[in-house]
Specification:
Elements: H1 2-29, H2 34-37, H3 44-54, H4 60-72, H5 86-121, H6 126-140, H7 143-157, H8 173-206, H9 210-217, H10 222-259, H11 265-275, H12 278-306, H13 308-312
Length: 313
C-alpha cells in the first residue's frame, strides 16, 4: 500500500508543476496591474516604479520560478490591494470551504448510496423507475437554481433555516450545521444523483453474479449478502464517480459561497478575480489544485482497498 501511495505522489508532482505553470501563465495574460496600482492618472515613471516593485521588469520564467519556489515553501505571495499574506487569507477561509464540502459530500454519499441501493435491489419495479427519474432530474439541476429554491422554501416562505452567514463549529456546533444545511444540500444534489445512478447500476449488475447466488443458496440473509458481498464488489465504479463529483463539487463552492454569503475560498477567488488581485487568484487556484490531487490520491488508495488485485500489481 505504501508503495502505491509513493508512486501516486511521485506521479502527482510533475502534474502539479504543469498546473502551476498554466495558472501563472494565464494570470500574466490578464494584463499588467501596475497601471491600476499606480494611482489616478499615473505617469510612466510611476508605472515603471510599481512594475519594478512587483517584479514585472524581470523575465517571465524568472518570475514564475520565484513564485513556484516560494509556493512550495508555503508562501503564495502578498495581495496587491490589502497587503495581506495570501497564505494567511487561504488558511483563514479554508475551514468554511472544508465545512461546506464535508457537509455536501456527506449528504451526497448517504442519500446517493441509499437511493441507488434501493433501486438496484429492486430493478424494473416502480421504485427503480422513480429513483432513476429523481436521479436524472438531480443531474440536470444547476447549483444556483437549487440554492435559490431552497432559500425561498426554507428561509423566506418558512423561516426555518438561515439563508446567509457562517458560524464556527467550535463556537456553536448547532449553528454551524444549521448554516450549512441549505448550501450543502444545494451543492450535494448533482453528486448525489450521479452516485445514486452509479450505485444502482453497479448493485443491479453484481446481484446477478454467480457468487451472489451461491451466497444466497448457502442460506445467508439478504442483508448479509448485500452488506458482505454485493456492496464491496460494487464499490469501485461508485468510488470513481464519487471522486469525479468531489472535484466538481469543489468548483461549485465558488457559486454556492457567493449565493449564501459564506466567507470561504470560493468567495475569496470570486472577489479576487473581479479585483484583478492576481496573487490571490494564483494562490487559491494552486491550493485548489493541490486539494483535487489529494482527493484523487485518496480515490486511488480506496481502489486498492476494494480491489486487492490493484494492491498486488
Amino acid at each position: 500500500m505504501l508503495r502505491l501511495i509513493a508512486k501516486r505522489v511521485l506521479t502527482a508532482v510533475p502534474l502539479l508543476i504543469v498546473v502551476s505553470f498554466v495558472i501563472f501563465w494565464l494570470m500574466q495574460q490578464a494584463g499588467n496591474p501596475a497601471a491600476q496600482l499606480a494611482g489616478n492618472n499615473p505617469s510612466d515613471e510611476d508605472i515603471a516604479r510599481v512594475e519594478q516593485e512587483l517584479g514585472f521588469d524581470q523575465p517571465f520564467f524568472i518570475r514564475y520560478l520565484k513564485w513556484l519556489g516560494a509556493a512550495f515553501q508555503g508562501d503564495f505571495g502578498t495581495s496587491y490591494f490589502t497587503g495581506e499574506s495570501v497564505t494567511n487569507s487561504i488558511v483563514s477561509r479554508l475551514p468554511v470551504t472544508l465545512s461546506l464540502v464535508a457537509v455536501a459530500l456527506a449528504l451526497a454519499i448517504i442519500l446517493g448510496i441509499t437511493l441507488g441501493l434501493i433501486a438496484g435491489l429492486n430493478p424494473g419495479t416502480w421504485i427503480d423507475r422513480a429513483a432513476t427519474i429523481l436521479a436524472s432530474v438531480g443531474v440536470a439541476l444547476p447549483y444556483f437554481w437549487v440554492g435559490m429554491m431552497l432559500v425561498l422554501a426554507f428561509s423566506i416562505n418558512a423561516p426555518l433555516l438561515p439563508a446567509t452567514g457562517y458560524v464556527s463549529f467550535w463556537d456553536n456546533p448547532v449553528g454551524w450545521f444549521s448554516h450549512l444545511i441549505l448550501p450543502g444540500l444545494a451543492l450535494a444534489i448533482a453528486p448525489m444523483a450521479v452516485v445514486a445512478r452509479q450505485t444502482r447500476a453497479s448493485v443491479a449488475e453484481v446481484m446477478t453474479q454467480d457468487y451472489i447466488r451461491t451466497a444466497t443458496a448457502k442460506g445467508l440473509t439478504k442483508y448479509r449478502v448485500v452488506a458482505k458481498h454485493a456492496l464491496k464488489n460494487a464499490a469501485v465504479p461508485v468510488v470513481t464517480a464519487f471522486g469525479l463529483e468531489a472535484n466538481r463539487l469543489i468548483g461549485g463552492t465558488v457559486v454556492i459561497e457567493q449565493l449564501f454569503v459564506l466567507p470561504g475560498l470560493g468567495r475569496l477567488a470570486y472577489e479576487s478575480v473581479f479585483a484583478r488581485d492576481f496573487p490571490q487568484v494564483q494562490g487559491v487556484l494552486l491550493f485548489t489544485a493541490i486539494m483535487v490531487l489529494l482527493i484523487n490520491l485518496l480515490i486511488d488508495v480506496s481502489y486498492a482497498y476494494f480491489n486487492p488485485r490493484i494492491r498486488q500489481s
